[in-house]
Automatic annotation (TrEMBL):
Protein source organism: Sparus aurata (Gilthead sea bream)
Transmembrane domains' residue ranges: 30-55
Domain of life per record: Eukaryota
Protein name: NADPH--cytochrome P450 reductase
Annotated gene: POR
Location of the protein in the cell: Endoplasmic reticulum membrane
Reactions accelerated catalytically: 2 oxidized [cytochrome P450] + NADPH = 2 reduced [cytochrome P450] + NADP(+) + H(+)
The Flavodoxin-like domain, residue ranges: 61-206
A Pfam cross-reference name: Flavodoxin_1
Amino acid sequence: LNTADMDAETTTNTEPMAEEEEPLFSNLDLFLFSLIVGLVIYWFMSLSIICFPFCNQGKNIIVFYGSQTGTAEEFANRLSKDAQRYGMKGMAADPEEYDMGEMARLSEIENSLAIFCMATYGEGDPTDNAQDMYDWLQENDDEDLSGLNYTVFALGNKTYEHYNAMGKYVDKRLEELGAKRIFDLGLGDDDGNLEEDFISWREQFWPAVCEHFGVEALGDDSSIRQYELKEHTDINMNKVYSGEIGRLKSFEVQKPPFDSKNPFLAPVTLNRKLNKGGDRHLMHLELDITGSKIRYESGDHVAVFPTNDSALVNKLGQILGVDLDVVISLNNLDEESNKKHPFPCPTTYRTALTHYLDITHPPRTNVLYELAQYASDPKDQENMRKMASSSPEGKALYQSWVLEASRNILAILEDMPSLKPPVDHLCELLPRLQARYYSIASSSKVHPNSIHICAVVVEYQTKTGRTNKGVATNWLKNKLVTDNGHKSTVPMYIRKSQFRLPFKATNPVIMVGPGTGIAPFMGFIQERGWLKEQGKEVGETVMYFGCRHKNEDYIYQEELEEAEKNQVLTQLNVAFSRDQEQKVYVQHILKKNKENIWKLIHSENAHIYVCGDARNMAKDVQTALYEIAEELGSMTRTQATDYIKKLMTKGRYSQDVWS
């Protein structure tokens, strides 16, 4: 602002003022100065709240979680709640919301401890919310954390190449920066029994903490409520959440940018069944993102927020004997906590059980433990507490009665008629319903305003004779283009991935994707075709697809054969596993074409992509490649393994797999 010009304007019309001494600052200057000072003070105050709330709130145990699907967050909440049983004050914390540079300040608090519950995502990557923390740990070599006490529990899955990479990294890196590990790194394996791994670790962890700090358990094993119920009898319904993830009314007034806290409601423009026969339902959906400013690339994931089946929700209401349309809030008893409610409040029980809570997964042991008090039959109480214990008998009972029988909370309530928990306590204990991720089956070069999903509907019989249905796939199956004259919409956002076509279009690509693992390759094929149309030179594009029967579930057959005819696909290899006596899978045809595969990889710099089942297929494909390298590269098995692993580190072997 030019103050001289402003003063000139204010003095030209009034002669007498010329005699007066000009003020150094005009009113506008003073106003702007006050505003800036106010903003600076506000910024520092908010920063101090964000940076070290544990200092202000008398907390001495902070449990950071790196969570993609909610499990690590759940474990963090359980550990922070445990702290109360040892006379300590704990809090669960999302590292995304804190300045990690302030972590060293924890040492100023007596008996302080930082616990890290860290999940690994994708190819050994941090979860979205732990990315900033990971970057901070990597970049700050001169950070001194010598006064910090810490421990790490890692969540992973042994079927993946980079098992628990993030937890192992955090554990090692904190030690390098001078922090003191007070209990061994815990390794949780979701391919085995993650809950059991966590309980076993936790059973030994707390006694070690007590010994380290010289404190004793209070001997109080009773249930500790975190939230209190408030029923709203007279409330304006415009202030009540009806399924929004973040901002109230965000589904009515949509504002970009769209992300996990602000999903976009994408209209469904196509929903078709892909398979011609068989007892499964494979489907292709197209979501319209016109006007959303959403950008995506081939290989990215689309996250969708599903809702629970209304029949399940109604049954829960009936068995608990509650009016699901009562408007409630669950308010945190710890007023200083950042987490005011377990899910958006105020809302109704119906909305909470439909949109916000996971009612279909078998409940974890802590839920059974806390609900046991509400069983009127002492035998039921005893069994529920036993399943939550670390005794071999209790673990075996939980494994068989809950996990192997796939009993969700409704099945447990039905099979234990004496169990009648208050619905508000049940809502406090159930985990949040999470977004589901799908590999995008389209290219933005060809479909800039549309995102394609390819999925198989999950439905199976349990050992108790019930039919369990996958939440997201059954919800997507019922997303018809128009539903009673209304457009069907799907709340979604994009998650960026490392699964990318080579930067140089001339590099050959080998794609291995049986079943719905073909999804990202539909995008890759579209993109390579588009590049060819642009007159670019495109390397060999080789597809290995597999399904059960040619006449039943050969999905995208027309598109694939058309791409082969147009020479976008230079090779199309399909394994029909059950069309002959001997089962034939993708790894078998890879081995059959070993000379071509080896030439592309070893001499022509090909990039390999594998998508689909991690437990069997991805491992078998990797083994087949070891064998090809061994035989045609004249290597020992150790050399062949190193050769393939090097391709991974160079970004020439990428996997998008799930178990």
